[in-house]
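Input.
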Amino acid sequence: MKRLLVLVATLLVVSTSAATASAGPHAPVNRPGPRLSVPVADLQAAVKCSPSAYGSHREVALFVPGTGVGPDEAFSWNWFPALDRIGHPYCAVALPGRSVGDVQVSAEYVVHAIRYARAVSRGRIAVVGHSQGGVSARFALRFWPDTRAMVADYVGLAAVNHGSDQNDVLYPDGNGPAFALQLKTTAKFIEATNSRQETFAGISYTSLSTTHDQFVTPAGTTDVHGPAGRVANISLQDVCPHNASDHITIGTSDALAYALAMNAITRPGPANPREIPASLCSQQNMPGVDPDTVADDLTAFLKKATDVIAAAPVSATEPALKPYMFARS
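Output.
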């Protein structure tokens, strides 16, 4: 009898372990997200919206900047004036330390910003993330399921969705800024972000990339994997072969990237390149960009990002994943 009980207990342990392994170590996709750990006052201060966002029936665009810059450096000389010109509502979120720390903390700001933008408007919103901003937005959608019903569109502009092998080369043994270690192709953070499923029902996903990207490589690491018809992974050069946009300009000044993003935001479904006029291939700058100052604006953007990244604290290892990311927490 004793042997039988031991055998039954062993079988239960084995079967339970097998079930856990088949499900993977990460939390189920519909488990409610944790309470935000960042003080409410800090979260509230980080979100700013245009007057047109309040009570708007249009799809409010929520901008999430990339590494090393805030919303002013990233969007005040391009996207904001472009949307002001056409009366399109928008919000933006400033991430802590200009996004050079733990991306898990930055994502909490994005969660709050999604909830806030949805609350002040009358419809679902579009999340537009450049570089790191694109993956922190997807992390928010993955681990805070309540945000998914608030979002109609996700638009990634050279988003580091599957990490960058440049980070693998630069920081093979750690000793780098926290965000850089989290955005390696082998990072636990990237694995968690893409765990179980990468897209969610009801959201249209548009991920834009450029073959001239000098920071996010290899090609395809920006792609989002999901059902056909709800996901569009678009290289700018597949639409306009001679497009010269790089990692910075795809999110700040490129006319084609702007047109594709707005195509996604202003119509059902992800961006459709066939609806972009061929004449756009001859345009370099998006609306809102001043051709007389764009070179200086881009230089200032890059200098700010470079200076902030250079001054970032160094981590010996990738920040540990938060307990809420695991199936057993």
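Residues 2-23 form the longest helix (22 residues).
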